[in-house]
Write the structure tokens for this entry.
Amino acid sequence: MKNELTDNNLQLIRELYNIGFYRINTKEEAAKFGKKNMIHRVQLIFSADAIMTMKDNMDANTIYVLTDVFNISMLVFLLDDELYILGPFTPLLHTKQDALRVLEQNNIKDLNVNIYLRYRNLFPTISEDMAVHIATSFLKTNDPEYSGRRIKKPSFFEDESQFLFFEEDRENFVNLLQLRYDNEKSFFNCVTKGDSEAALNYLSKMQQDVSYIKRIGSTLENERIGCAITRTTLRIAALKAGLPVYVIDKISSKNTKLTIKETDIEKILDHKKEMVKDFCEAIMQLNTNKHSAVINNAIYYLENYYQDDITLDLLTATMSISKSYLLTLFKKELNTTPGKYLRKVRVTKACQLLESSQKSIQQISESVGIADSNYFVKLFKKEMDMTPSQYRKKHNSTVG
């Protein structure tokens, strides 16, 4: 009866946390566990001999946290003289750069980096504290005499090269921090100039500096925080460059929405790079147009948010200026009105879609911010002297 209850609790934890939970009594069971979860011979914690040796020598009042050279962890403990293993799990996420460092530091040349990353993704990402909480809850439920257990992290399975690397190669730690400060300053200056290529180069250097200081691996929360710090730096640089607040808010809000629920660490890093590009492109556009700041800002808004339902009232409210002032400047500097400029932008974007996509006229109309496709056709014909269908037939090679 007790074994049945224990088995039910094991299965419940597996389903709730999507984590492996094993009861191992024989070397054959240990070998089966190792075969299922091991990818390379350097992972000693998955060795059947190591598992059975631990079983014979473990303290019954201790939960052991074992971590291998790939930062794969598992908890090992005894209950009624039977060995239980919770895991494997990954306390930290690894990027491709992290993976390359791990393989290089351990001189592993027979394991492909992409296979390594796919292997790590097989296991749930949970903290050691959470894993201990799960194991403790299991023990409380299944051991009537439970009164607490010590948590121990044996060091004999860990890779010491990471710590030697830390001690030997970080003697000039102050110089490294100074280098990071210099890179941040250069990154800031490149952004204020709108130089996205140079800014991304310094962003890469800054991220290398961070990975050099910290231990390999990260968490989604850490990367989101890192993205938020970069976002703040970009906002300050953009303000210095003269980018209007509403544009800054649009770009940074876009990044926040993309990263706040992202579960892929590589995509968070990609979104950060895209944010840098967006800010730099906006600043470059601001710097290259030979118009007043007000007109430059209006042009940026119309050319980047043409999909929205933009009215003159909305545009002037967003820019915090009067309608008459904006109309006067548009007439003076561009010899047109905001409405006509927006229509031209929408038609230009529609032309690009007609040339490169198979979207319907209705879909293209909605893509450029015009809900009524009939009105879109009339507007397009007025600007281009032909209908959207005629334009597509003339310029899209995939249309017969």
Q: What stands out?
A: Residues 293-395 form a domain with the Arc Repressor Mutant, subunit A fold (CATH 1.10.10.60). DSSP finds 19 helices and five strands in the chain.
